[in-house]
């Protein structure tokens, strides 16, 4: 009986140590990209006369600190 208890304890320890080193799903899917800088694009609103005339110009000046992004 004593040997069986140690076997169960060893198996539980092996399983739990394997789970502890696995990163969670957020860390596996997290992509860190720095978007600091000037961004330019065009916005074409759907079903609008402006869309056929070339859309609207959009300018963004962004600054990123860690995971927070703000426009200047």
Describe the structure in your own words.
With 72 residues, this protein is of the alpha+beta class. It has one domain (2-71). It contains three helices and three strands. It has helices at residues 2-20, 25-29, 49-52, and strands at residues 37-43, 56-65, 68-71. It has a three-stranded antiparallel beta sheet with strand order 1-2-3, with no helix packed on it. Strand 2 and strand 3 (68-71) form a beta hairpin. The longest helix is centred in the first third of the chain and has 19 residues, at 2-20. The N and C termini lie far apart (70 Å). The model has no long low-confidence stretch (mean pLDDT 76).
Question: Number of folding domains?
Answer: 1
Largest sheet: 3 strands, antiparallel
Number of helices: 3
The poorly predicted ranges are none
- Element order: H for helix, E for strand: HHEHEE
């Amino acid at each position: 009986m004593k040997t069986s208890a140690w076997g169960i304890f060893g198996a539980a320890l092996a399983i739990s140590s394997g789970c502890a080193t696995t990163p969670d799903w957020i860390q596996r899917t997290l992509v860190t990209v720095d978007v600091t800088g000037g961004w330019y694009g065009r916005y074409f609103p759907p079903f609008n006369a402006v869309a056929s005339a070339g859309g609207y110009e959009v300018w963004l000046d962004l600054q990123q600190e860690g995971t927070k992004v703000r426009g200047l």
